[in-house]
Amino acid sequence: MQGNIISTDKEYVANTYNRFPLEIVRGEGSYLFDSEGKKYIDMGSGIGVTAFGFDDEEWKTAIIDQINKVQHTSNLYYTEPCANLAKLLCEKTGLKKVFFSNSGAEANECAIKVARKWACDTKGEEYNTIITLENSFHGRTVTTLAATGQEHYHQLFKPLTDGFVHTPANNLEALEEVVGKNKVAAVMIECVQGEGGVIPLEKNFVAGLEKLSKEHNFLIIVDEVQTGNGRTGKLYGYMNFGITPDIVSTAKGLGGGLPIGAAILGERVENVLGFGDHGSTYGGNPVCAAAALTVINRLSDEFLNEVAEKSKYVFSQFENAVGVQSVSGMGLMIGIKTVKPAAEVVKMAMEKGVLCLTAKDKVRLLPALNIPFSDLKAAVEVIKACCK
Ligand SMILES: *Cc1c(COP(=O)(O)O)cnc(C)c1O
Fold it and tell me: What is the pTM of this model?
């Protein structure tokens, strides 16, 4: 019954989330239904997670089949879904090995540990600085908060992990200067800053970063937690930029709605971690890995072209729309700067049956990658009307 869930949650769940007053009870395709039976078109995918929407047959079947076999083993033993998912990720990226975690922050933690150990092994212990970008978001653990280039997340939780330096995005000169001044293990970027406002990096900045990484012998870590797994219209966001990263971290859409993250390791770092250097009880859990296999297996070039087509449609609809100042992003990761406050547009859209997100001062759209064109069109019409 409407209200019971909300009041119990408010009493017993820690106050970290300013939730919308909406009790979700069921999902189907790109629709969510609340406890009063109202239907919504979901343009948020649980923050870019439910890549193939809700109640997806292939995803559900894989999970149920695996649950009927064994739901968890720990990493003391081998399981087929874990091994096969690692193989698939390596084959599709050309990278070499995978460490599985349960979330984006943990995938980044692994990337950071690998970078520090690599630098220690090859350059010396003092080469421990990780450079990240201002306005970035890399997670909520004490170390990934330090990586996150937004001071307001840091306040109240200091001291954070040492050794992180932030530099402005798309400023090669500043990057070059900060690389020169520090003993650098790695530079970590998001190809499209997600939480920071859906802002893609410039191609020449990313190319310049790759050139610098060769000159100064440091690693490139790409945080693909949000941009990964088809979201930008390519399998991974970095593939739009023509670079070869050393470490790719991902999570969100990977499991299609079950918690799994991955740090995918390139040639230079594939053997940096040895026995006991890192671990996770749940990491690579067979049910989550079976789910992820159904996501990654379906991200064919043909499917990704459809994502790019849908993206073009959404951009074309919002560029020059009344009440819209600008549109940014890539693929089905789209930020809309509205004249009205973004939160007001999101609230209005929700009343009219469309669920959207915000990122900073923008309305953010992260629909399921397989959202039917008809649902996408209907949602766009509603959002456009709310922007006016
Ligand atoms: C969401 C996000 C994270 C954190 O992922 P969690 O699964 O919430 O730990 C890290 N980096 C980026 C770019 C993200 O969008």
Answer: 0.98
